[in-house]
Amino acid sequence: MVRLSNATHAYGDETVIENLTLSIDPGEVVAIIGPSGVGKTTVLRILALFLSPTEGSVTFDGRDVWSLSEDERLKLRRRIGMVFQEASLFDATVARNVEYGLRVRESWTDR
Questions:
Q1: In 10 A of CB 104, how many CB atoms?
Q2: With b meaning 16 or more CB within 10 Å and e meaning fewer, what string describes 13-43?
Q3: 7: buried, middle or exposed (CB in 10 Å: 19+, 13-18, 0-12)?
Q4: Which of 2-11, 63-72, 86-95 has the lowest mean pLDDT?
Q5: What CA–CA distance (Å, rounded) separates 84 from 62?
Q6: Average pLDDT of the segment spanning 67-96
Q7: Bridge partners of 60?
Q8: How high is the mean pLDDT of the chain?
Protein backbone atom coordinates (compact mmCIF):
# COMPACT_ATOMS: atom_id res chain seq x y z
CA MET A 1 0.00 0.00 0.00
CA VAL A 2 1.17 3.52 -0.77
CA ARG A 3 0.00 6.23 1.61
CA LEU A 4 0.30 9.99 1.70
CA SER A 5 -0.17 11.37 5.20
CA ASN A 6 -0.87 15.07 5.65
CA ALA A 7 1.07 15.77 2.46
CA THR A 8 1.59 19.39 1.51
CA HIS A 9 3.61 20.59 -1.46
CA ALA A 10 4.49 24.13 -2.45
CA TYR A 11 6.36 25.57 -5.39
CA GLY A 12 7.89 28.67 -3.85
CA ASP A 13 5.08 30.65 -2.25
CA GLU A 14 2.33 28.72 -4.07
CA THR A 15 0.88 25.78 -2.14
CA VAL A 16 -0.71 23.33 -4.59
CA ILE A 17 -1.46 20.47 -2.19
CA GLU A 18 -2.36 20.98 1.43
CA ASN A 19 -2.80 18.29 4.09
CA LEU A 20 -3.71 15.49 1.66
CA THR A 21 -4.11 12.02 3.12
CA LEU A 22 -4.63 9.21 0.63
CA SER A 23 -4.13 5.43 0.72
CA ILE A 24 -3.96 3.20 -2.34
CA ASP A 25 -4.03 -0.57 -1.93
CA PRO A 26 -2.17 -2.99 -4.21
CA GLY A 27 -4.09 -3.53 -7.46
CA GLU A 28 -6.41 -0.61 -6.79
CA VAL A 29 -7.08 1.69 -9.74
CA VAL A 30 -7.30 5.37 -8.86
CA ALA A 31 -8.14 8.35 -11.03
CA ILE A 32 -7.31 11.87 -9.92
CA ILE A 33 -9.55 14.39 -11.63
CA GLY A 34 -10.14 18.09 -11.28
CA PRO A 35 -9.70 21.42 -12.99
CA SER A 36 -6.37 22.69 -14.25
CA GLY A 37 -3.91 23.87 -11.63
CA VAL A 38 -5.26 22.05 -8.57
CA GLY A 39 -2.22 19.77 -8.09
CA LYS A 40 -3.20 16.52 -9.81
CA THR A 41 0.17 16.05 -11.51
CA THR A 42 2.01 16.98 -8.32
CA VAL A 43 0.09 14.28 -6.44
CA LEU A 44 1.00 11.74 -9.14
CA ARG A 45 4.67 12.71 -8.99
CA ILE A 46 4.65 12.32 -5.21
CA LEU A 47 2.89 8.94 -5.46
CA ALA A 48 5.42 7.78 -8.06
CA LEU A 49 8.28 8.83 -5.76
CA PHE A 50 9.68 11.43 -8.16
CA LEU A 51 8.90 14.35 -5.86
CA SER A 52 8.89 14.58 -2.09
CA PRO A 53 6.18 16.56 -0.33
CA THR A 54 7.19 19.83 1.31
CA GLU A 55 5.52 18.51 4.47
CA GLY A 56 3.97 15.20 5.46
CA SER A 57 5.06 11.68 4.61
CA VAL A 58 4.89 9.04 1.92
CA THR A 59 4.96 5.40 2.96
CA PHE A 60 5.10 2.33 0.76
CA ASP A 61 4.23 -0.94 2.49
CA GLY A 62 4.67 0.90 5.78
CA ARG A 63 8.20 2.23 5.02
CA ASP A 64 8.95 5.95 4.79
CA VAL A 65 10.17 6.22 1.19
CA TRP A 66 12.26 9.35 1.68
CA SER A 67 14.42 7.62 4.28
CA LEU A 68 15.35 4.96 1.71
CA SER A 69 18.29 5.12 -0.68
CA GLU A 70 17.72 6.14 -4.31
CA ASP A 71 18.27 2.50 -5.37
CA GLU A 72 15.59 1.31 -2.95
CA ARG A 73 13.18 3.98 -4.23
CA LEU A 74 13.94 2.87 -7.81
CA LYS A 75 12.90 -0.68 -6.91
CA LEU A 76 9.64 0.67 -5.48
CA ARG A 77 9.00 2.83 -8.58
CA ARG A 78 9.10 -0.29 -10.73
CA ARG A 79 6.06 -1.54 -8.84
CA ILE A 80 4.00 1.57 -9.61
CA GLY A 81 2.18 2.16 -12.88
CA MET A 82 0.55 5.35 -14.07
CA VAL A 83 -0.21 7.32 -17.19
CA PHE A 84 0.38 11.08 -17.41
CA GLN A 85 -2.09 13.14 -19.41
CA GLU A 86 0.53 14.52 -21.78
CA ALA A 87 3.14 11.78 -21.35
CA SER A 88 5.68 14.02 -19.59
CA LEU A 89 7.49 12.69 -16.58
CA PHE A 90 9.48 15.77 -15.59
CA ASP A 91 8.68 19.44 -16.15
CA ALA A 92 12.25 20.20 -17.20
CA THR A 93 13.28 19.13 -20.70
CA VAL A 94 12.80 16.30 -23.15
CA ALA A 95 16.42 15.37 -22.42
CA ARG A 96 15.68 14.91 -18.71
CA ASN A 97 12.69 12.70 -19.47
CA VAL A 98 14.77 10.54 -21.84
CA GLU A 99 17.74 10.50 -19.45
CA TYR A 100 15.63 8.99 -16.70
CA GLY A 101 14.61 6.06 -18.91
CA LEU A 102 18.20 5.46 -19.92
CA ARG A 103 19.41 5.49 -16.32
CA VAL A 104 16.70 2.99 -15.37
CA ARG A 105 17.71 0.81 -18.32
CA GLU A 106 21.38 0.88 -17.20
CA SER A 107 20.42 -0.57 -13.84
CA TRP A 108 18.57 -3.57 -15.34
CA THR A 109 20.34 -6.89 -15.33
CA ASP A 110 20.43 -9.23 -18.31
CA ARG A 111 17.63 -11.75 -18.15
A1: 12
A2: eeebbeebeeeeeeeeeeeeeeeeeebbbbb
A3: buried
A4: 86-95
A5: 26
A6: 74
A7: 2, 63
A8: 82
Three-state SS sequence of the chain: CEEEEEEEEEECCEEEEEEEEEEECCCCCCCCCCCCCCCHHHHHHHHCCCCCCCEEEEEECCEEHHHCCHHHHHHHHCCCCCCCCCCCCCCCCHHHHHHHHHHHHHCCCCC
pTM (2 d.p.): 0.69
> How far apart are alpha carbons 38 and 46 in whole angstroms?
14
Cα distance between residue 41 and residue 88, in whole Å: 10
Give the chain's length. Answer: 111
**Residue 84 pLDDT greater than 70, yes or no:** no
